[in-house]
Specification:
The complex is a heterodimer of chains A (about 220) and B (about 130). Chain A is α/β, with parallel strands linked by helices and about 220 residues long. Chain A is about 25% helix and about 25% strand. The chains are: A alpha/beta (about 220), B mainly alpha (about 130). Chains A and B meet through helix 1, helix 4, strand 9 and helix 5 of A and helix 1, helix 2, helix 4, helix 5 and strand 1 of B. Strand 9 of chain A pairs parallel with strand 1 of chain B, so a sheet runs across the interface.
Chain lengths: ~220, ~130
């Protein structure tokens, strides 16, 4: 299988989602044979496609390592929750506190092999990441696809590299978020990188310094 | 050279003991004895209707927790990356650090500890307990 960068517009307006905004899914190449990062993206609720570029964008990352960011989407801050149900495998319920009420939110499954993303075993020696520079390099490649490739959703929506961007990382993503953030800024500073809108990085319950954190348990 | 694999092994062992002694507490919320229903998302993304609705590639199978990804970062697990946060601050990126009070693994005092020891030009303002 060979995943390529693609941007698919979704129609989630009917039941059970009843979503009141634009939504996309897709894959982003990371230049490791057919490997790709999968994402689900929601434009700010109530905003038309052409207006999305006027709102800040939040990237949400769950940790693990290997936890899908769709957990964040469907159980923490996305517009519709997937909840346990008695008569069905699950039910869909609106999340009245979704961040999508105020911002564009992008849920990316990364590193490759996580959640809806794909790690191509044909990539030698391995498609998998073993440290934060691997993670940051893959993610930066994927971001460039998103912003600048003709198949990239942000490119198609006119969300240019200078628009305000925030990266949130929870738990193990308390390492991913600063790794990706500092990669973006380094590319901007040293290599005329065109993603220049990074305004903030947020770390929630971050596993950023394991030894210090664990020294306080109990 | 530190034994990063051994450190991770020890972490897993210690956490198992704590959870066991605490009667199977939820490691992300110590007020709960129920794990989060993350497996729900696997049945969600297995549904042909959902795959179609979300225009997903049907050849990619979803996993809420990818073991291969975890294994390849096994030795990275106990590695600290505070210097990356310091780099962000140095390059004038705003950084927000927040923490839930009920997390067993990443508990608030531990987060205070590394956050207060960050090196940056405004560090003194953030050192409540030092």
């Amino acid at each position: 299988m060979h995943l390529q960068t693609v941007c698919n517009e979704l129609n989630l307006q009917s039941a059970p989602f009843n979503h009141s905004g634009v939504a996309y899914s897709g894959y982003l190449s990371v230049n490791k044979a057919g490997s790709g990062l999968a994402f689900i993206f929601y434009g700010k609720e109530g905003a038309a496609k052409e207006e999305l570029k006027n709102y800040p964008t939040v990237i949400w990352l769950n940790g693990g390592p290997g936890s899908s960011s769709q957990l964040g989407n469907f159980m923490e801050l996305g517009p519709e929750f997937v909840k346990p149900a008695t008569m069905a495998p699950y039910e869909i319920k609106a999340n009245e506190y979704t961040w999508v009420k105020s911002y564009n939110v992008l849920f990316v499954d990364q590193p490759v092999g996580t959640g809806l993303s794909y790690a191509d075993p044909n990539y030698q020696p391995t498609p998998y990441c073993s440290n934060m520079s691997d993670v940051a390099n893959d993610f930066y490649y994927a971001l460039q696809e998103l912003y600048f490739s003709s198949n990239g959703c942000f490119n198609q929506l006119g969300i240019t590299g200078d628009k305000p961007l925030f990266i949130f990382g929870e738990s193990y993503a308390g390492k991913y978020a600063p790794a990706i953030g500092s990669k973006i800024k380094q590319e901007q500073r040293d290599k005329q990188g065109k993603i220049t809108g990074l305004k903030g990085v947020a770390i929630g319950d971050g596993f950023t310094h394991p030894a210090f954190i664990l020294s306080q348990v109990g | 050279m530190r034994d990063m694999r051994g450190l991770h092994d020890t972490f897993d062992l210690a956490l198992d003991v704590i959870v066991d002694m605490a009667g199977g507490v939820n490691v992300y919320d110590i007020t709960s004895y129920h794990d989060y229903p993350t497996l729900l998302l696997e049945s969600f993304f297995e549904s042909p209707d959902i795959i179609k609705l979300f225009k997903l590639n049907p050849n990619v199978s979803y996993s809420a927790q990818a073991d291969q990804v975890y294994e390849h970062l096994y030795e990275d697990f106990m590695q600290q990356y505070v210097h990356l946060v310091e780099e962000l601050l140095e390059m004038d990126v705003n950084v927000m650090i927040y923490n839930g009070q009920n997390d067993l693994i990443v508990e608030t005092p531990g987060t205070f500890k590394w956050a207060e020891l960050l090196h940056h030009k405004d560090a003194q303002q953030f050192r409540y307990f030092l």
